[in-house]
Design brief:
Layout (H helix, E strand, L loop, with lengths): L1 H24 L2 H28 L11 H37 L3 E5 L5 E4 L1 H7 L3 H4 L4 H4 L3 H9 L6 E4 L7 E9 L3 E8 L1 H37 L6 H32 L11 H16 L5 E6 L3 E3 L3 H18 L5 E9 L2 E8 L21 H7 L5 H11 L3 E7 L3 E8 L4 E3 L23
Parallel strand pairs: 6-8
Antiparallel strand pairs: 1-2, 1-5, 3-4, 4-5, 7-12, 8-9, 9-11, 10-11
Length: 452
C-alpha cells in the first residue's frame, strides 16, 4: 500500500508539473498529453519487460526496477520460486509413488472419470499387453473386451474381485479389483492368482472325489443298519442303543456328503438358468410345506409375505436349496412355537428374500464367519440338531451364481434376519410391480417378534 501511495504521489506530482509548464508556456493540453503519453510508454515498457521475463520460465533474475514495478517483479519472483519448490516436492512424491508401483509384482492401472487409461506400471503392461504410445487415453473396455469384465466394470459394484484369464498369457488367471477414488476415477489392481486357483481346484477335486468315494460305502452301511434296526427288539438293550447311534451317525454322514457334493457342483459346474422366470411365491409355499413337516411337534408358525408380481430368473433347483437351508435353519435353531416370517418383495435396488425368526439370536462376533464351511456358533447344539456346518456356505455360493449377496442381522434374545439380495437384472416384473416401495428396515431389535 505504501508503494501504491508513493506511485500515486509521483503521478500527481508529474501532472502538477506538466500543468504548471503548460500554463507557463501556454500549451497546457499539449503538456498534459505529452506527460500522459510518456507515462503510458513507461507502463508499456515495464509490461514488455515482465512479458519477456515470464517467457523465459524464470531462468533469469527478474528485471531491475524501482518503486511499484520493482516490488511487483520481486513478489512474482518469490512466489514463483515457492511454486517451483512445491512442484518439486510434489514431483518427488509422484516419482516415489511411480517407482514403488513399478517395483510391485501386482499390476496397477489408473483410469480417468471416463474410464480411459491414464497410467500403468510395468507389471500391468506385461499382464495385459498394454503399449504406452498407442493405448494411453483409450477406454479400458476397448482393450479388455471380455463381456464379464465389461459387465463388472459398468455395474460399479466392486465389493468382490473379478477373476479372468489373461488376454495375452495362456494359462494365467488374473484377479481384477477396482477402487473408486476422486471424482469418479478408478484404480485397478491386477494380481496373478494362477497358483491360488490351481490350489483351489485341487481342493475342490479332492473334496468332490472323497465325497463320491464315501457315498457308496455309506449307502451300504446305512442300508444294513436300517435292516438290522428292523430286528433290534431281538438284541440286548445295550446293543440296541449302539445300533441306533450308528444309524443316526450314518444318516448325518450322508447329509454331510450330500452337502459337500452340492458345494462341489456349485463351484465347478456351469450356471444353468431356467428359460422362464421362477415364481418365488409358489416356491416359498412349497418350502413352507416341507418346513412344517420338519417342525413337527415344535409347531412353528411360518408366514409368507410375497409379492407375486415379482419373479426371478435363475436356477429353481439351486434357489430352492438356498431358501430351504435358511428356513430349515430357522426351524432347527429357534424354540418351539416361534414365528418364522418369509418375505419376498421388490425394492428400488432390486429384490430381497428375508427369513426372519424370533429365536435366540447370534452374537455379533460370529456374524462375519457364518458362511464359512463347517463354522458353527455352538458346536454342541449343531451336532444335536444334525447340522453339517455347510448350509450357509451353500446359500452364499448359490447367491453368487445369481449375482446376489447375503446379509445377516441378529441380536441375542431378539431374533435373526437372513436377507438374500438380487439385482434388478435378475427380476421379471409384472406392471403392478413397476413402482416398488421405498426400502425400509423391518428388523428392529428393540421389538420382539411375536410368538405363538
Amino acid at each position: 500500500m505504501a508503494l501504491l501511495r508513493t506511485e500515486g504521489w509521483q503521478l500527481g506530482l508529474g501532472l502538477l508539473i506538466a500543468t504548471g509548464l503548460g500554463l507557463l508556456l501556454n500549451i497546457l493540453p499539449w503538456a498534459l498529453c505529452a506527460f500522459l503519453l510518456g507515462y503510458l510508454l513507461r507502463l508499456a515498457r515495464q509490461l514488455q519487460r515482465l512479458q519477456i521475463w515470464l517467457q523465459q520460465h524464470n531462468e533469469q533474475d527478474p528485471p531491475e526496477a524501482t518503486g511499484l514495478w520493482g516490488e511487483i517483479f520481486d513478489q512474482l519472483y518469490h512466489r514463483q520460486k515457492r511454486q517451483q519448490r512445491a512442484q518439486g516436492r510434489l514431483q518427488t512424491v509422484i516419482n516415489r509413488v511411480q517407482d514403488s508401483s513399478e517395483a510391485l509384482r501386482d499390476g496397477v492401472i489408473t483410469l480417468d472419470s471416463e474410464g480411459n487409461l491414464e497410467w500403468w506400471n510395468s507389471a500391468a503392461e506385461k499382464m495385459l499387453g498394454l503399449r504406452a504410445a498407442e493405448d494411453r487415453g483409450q477406454p479400458i473396455t476397448h482393450l479388455l473386451r471380455d463381456p464379464r469384465f465389461i459387465e463388472y466394470f459398468e455395474m460399479r459394484r466392486y465389493q468382490e474381485p473379478l477373476i479372468l484369464p489373461s488376454p495375452i498369457l495362456d494359462g494365467i488367471q488374473l484377479e481384477f479389483q477396482i477402487t473408486l477414488y476422486g471424482e469418479d476415477n478408478r484404480l485397478i489392481m491386477l494380481r496373478d492368482v494362477t497358483r491360488l486357483k490351481r490350489l483351489e481346484q485341487m481342493r475342490q477335486d479332492f473334496v468332490a472325489n472323497v465325497s463320491h468315494e464315501l457315498r457308496t460305502p455309506l449307502t451300504v452301511l446305512s442300508g444294513y443298519l436300517e435292516t438290522f434296526s428292523d430286528y433290534s427288539q431281538d438284541l440286548p438293550p445295550r446293543w440296541q442303543r449302539g445300533l441306533e447311534l450308528m444309524r443316526q451317525q450314518s444318516v448325518r454322514m450322508e447329509h454331510l456328503v450330500n452337502d459337500l457334493l452340492t458345494l462341489s457342483r456349485l463351484e465347478t459346474s456351469d450356471f444353468e438358468q431356467e428359460q422362464d422366470p421362477i415364481d418365488v411365491h409358489r416356491l416359498l409355499e412349497a418350502i413352507r410345506h416341507d418346513a412344517q413337516a420338519l417342525s413337527g411337534d415344535k409347531q412353528h408358525m411360518i408366514s409368507i409375505e410375497a409379492d407375486s408380481n415379482v419373479k426371478l430368473y435363475g436356477s429353481e433347483k439351486e434357489l430352492r436349496s438356498a431358501f430351504s437351508n435358511l428356513v430349515f435353519n430357522a426351524i432347527k435353531y429357534t424354540p418351539a412355537g416361534t414365528e418364522i416370517r418369509l418375505r419376498w418383495r421388490h425394492e428400488r435396488s432390486g429384490a430381497q428374500l428375508a427369513v426372519i425368526d424370533g429365536g435366540e439370536g447370534i452374537e455379533p462376533s460370529h456374524l462375519p464367519r457364518l458362511t464359512e464351511r463347517f463354522y458353527r456358533v455352538d458346536k454342541g447344539r449343531s451336532a444335536s440338531t444334525g447340522g453339517t456346518g455347510l448350509g450357509l456356505a451353500i446359500v452364499k455360493h448359490v447367491l453368487l451364481r445369481h449375482q446376489g449377496r447375503l446379509d445377516i442381522h441378529s441380536e441375542l434374545g431378539v431374533g435373526s434376519e437372513f436377507i438374500c439380495h438380487f439385482p434388478p437384472a435378475r427380476l421379471a416384473l409384472d406392471p403392478a410391480a413397476a413402482h416398488p416401495p421405498h426400502p425400509s428396515k423391518d428388523f428392529r431389535p428393540q421389538h420382539r417378534l411375536k410368538s405363538s
